[in-house]
Design a protein that fits this description.
- It is a single chain.
- The chain is mainly beta and 214 residues long.
- It has 2 domains: 48 residues, no CATH class; 158 residues.
- Helices cover 10% and strands 40% of the residues.
- The chain has 4 helices and 15 strands.
- The strands form 4 sheets. It has a 6-stranded antiparallel sheet. The protein has a 4-stranded antiparallel sheet with strand order 7-8-11-12, with no helix packed on it.
Amino acid sequence: MFGLRLGRRSGATDYGQGTQSGLGSWIPIPQTADTDLRAQAEALRLTGFYRPEDIDIDRRALAGQKVRFCANNTGNEPDDQYFGEVVCISDGTVTGSAANTAVPELQTLVLGSPAINMPDNIAYQARRGNWIIHEDGETVTDLLGPHNNDLWSCLPDGKDENLSGDGCVRIATLNDLEAEWTGGIFDASGKHFYVSIQHNVTGTGTVLDITGWK
């Protein structure tokens, strides 16, 4: 088991508070019968994130024998006005990553906002390379008033001057202030998106098969 510690400035311990993106290292975590990961994260000065919820693999990178995956940090909108973010970690080649000789790099794909609020689950769309972000945010806020949780389709980073995604569009909205999207996943074709709706007013969860993807 390894933990991520960001910060690699030569000749210095350039890690800790404020170093939450960029290059880093995978740090081995000592194993016991019941390892306390929170205590180990503090002792090893691993990079901390607020409510990391879900991860999916970048299949295009994997097809090229590269390791890359993206994940959500959900954040805490009601208490802190922290809307979360989507981050992506690259880790060299499959061979290098398996041998722990690669240098991991974390960059922000999508910065949360009152619109894209508290991203929870994430799904990679085969063929298109888009990322489907599932909201699990507060649905009654001072900034937006009553509003339901959404699904967002976000472009990967293109050939431009930054490393973030190239835009997101809202593709679905729930009609129930209590409900949230969760657990979405595409089939291998990228044309069927299976996603769950939980906490809805019926008291029974629902699984949808959303089609029509180009």
